[in-house]
Amino acid sequence: MFKRILVANRGEIALRVIRACRELGVESVVVYSQADQDARYLKLADRAICIGPARSDQSYLKMSSIISAAEQADVDAIHPGYGFLSENSKFAEVCHSSGFEFIGPTVEAMECLGDKNNARQVAKRCNAPTVPGSDGVIESLSQALKVAHEIGYPVLVKATAGGGGRGIRLAENDQALELALSEAATEAQSAFGNPNVYIEKFIANPRHVEAQILADKYGNVVHLWERDCSLQRRRQKLVEMTPAPNLSLEQRKALCETAARIAKESGYTNAGTVEFIVDEQGNYYFIEMNARIQVEHPVTEMATGVDLIKSQIQIAAGEKLRLKQKDVVHRGYVIECRINAEDVEHNFRPCPGKIESMIVPGGFGVRFDSHVYAGYTVSPFYDSMIGKLIVAQNTREDALATMTRALQEFEIKGIKTSIPLLLRILQSREFATMTPDVGFIERYFMN
To answer: Which of 26, 121, 277, 337 has its CA 20 to 30 A from that of 235?
Structure first.
């Protein structure tokens, strides 16, 4: 096991990793920007090192500053959390070349799966269903038109790199396809430094279902069942749950076993998430793999009893998986709501500022993962998520009742949050009677 780990992230996930280190008997060193210098979680780490100004490109995204902090603190490994540099293969390579274990997948796996077109080829090799589309990168308009005519409109033009909904455009005819190619490539170049795009068939009203996997360095791979992440706003997740509603046990097993095959085929190690879309007939298609821990990992933890952050650290330290697939048991129903500092009534505008008071809900089956507190000032420099409210109960009905009660009990003064919208969604007739797809929130709650 490692003696000392550098936590190369901030906020809720930094606190989560610090706590896991403490329980494993590993020292933790956390980095922070000047904007986070008063964060309470810094005191829970064994050491905290400032790595620069508030702007993330001068602190949390600056590789040289993070490596310098790791050398200064004489750590064994670096945990990147999620976001920032967590899926940057160059950062992983720099960590290794500097003598630090990167707590995540190998550089080779990151480079392979970080390119969505390459990831599709991996999926095809292990007979995983993929959305019909181009066999590789689109090199010309004529090639794009040929593919679109073969698979039929509408189609999606998608960046091969990155995520978060960027570099994606919908085209419903030849004229729109030409514009979509240009716009998607331009946005991809700006966001990811890579203009390459490919084409796939547009699936109407898809659901977003993902499978959590763990893989050690000895070829052992297990899945930890699935999460439904269809409740999204502009491709940003708001609510996640397990099991995925209206999928049979056989469908869930097939999807999750497919995820494990993809991870094994790619030589993947550590924690990862294999993402699928599910059409209106219940057919699932591989779309990409996220080579990091996900924001919504507590959903899986509460359903399986497996600590994913500890598992990440143990795998990186060279330990074999302590689980076999038969040991992974899915229990009950779990829902997670992301609490964001946003003004929902004004186009989800970020709402930084001081939290004047806060009452956090509790009770049986309730968990709140957050780094904020009464008196904390939400920074304008980073993502607006300030916490994750998770509930676990035996049935969907009980989980919904507990989550509704917990959201009603939650009180935050001084800033606006997403709580009122979350309550509207969960208490709505539409949510009670329909199976949400990725356009559900925008159709019914953003008019």
So the answer is: 121
Burial 257-272 (b: 16+ CB within 10 A, else e): ebbbbbbebbbbbbbb
Nearest Cα neighbor of 6 from 23, 24, 31 is 31
- Percent of residues in the chain assigned helix, strand, coil, to nearest 5: 35, 25, 35
Q: Output phi, psi for 47, to 5 deg.
A: -160, 150
Q: How many CA atoms lie within 13 Å of 287's alpha carbon, on the beta-carbon side?
A: 25
- pLDDT one-digit tens code per residue, 404-422: 999 999 999 999 999 999 9
Segment 225-250 mean pLDDT: 95
Exactly one of 120, 227, 233, 292 is catalytic; name it. 292
Q: Which pLDDT score, from 0 to 100, does residue 382 have?
A: 96
Rg (Cα) of the chain, in Å, rounded? 21
292 is catalytic: yes
Q: Which H helix or E strand runs over 72?
A: helix 63-73
Q: How far is CA 140 from CA 182, 186, 197, 216, 431, in A?
A: 11, 15, 10, 41, 43
Give CA–CA dist 296/225, Å, rounded: 13
Select from 77, 99, 93, 64 the least CA-distant residue to 28. Answer: 77
User: For 29-47, how does the pLDDT look when each residue is reduced to its tens digit (9 = 90+)?
Assistant: 999 999 999 999 999 999 9
Nearest to 419, CA basis, from 439, 431, 404, 398: 404
C-beta atoms surrounding 97 within 10 Å:
10
Contact (CB, 8 A) for 71 and 77 = no
Kindly report whether the global pTM for this prediction surpasses the value 0.70: yes
Residue 76 confidence (pLDDT) above 80 = yes
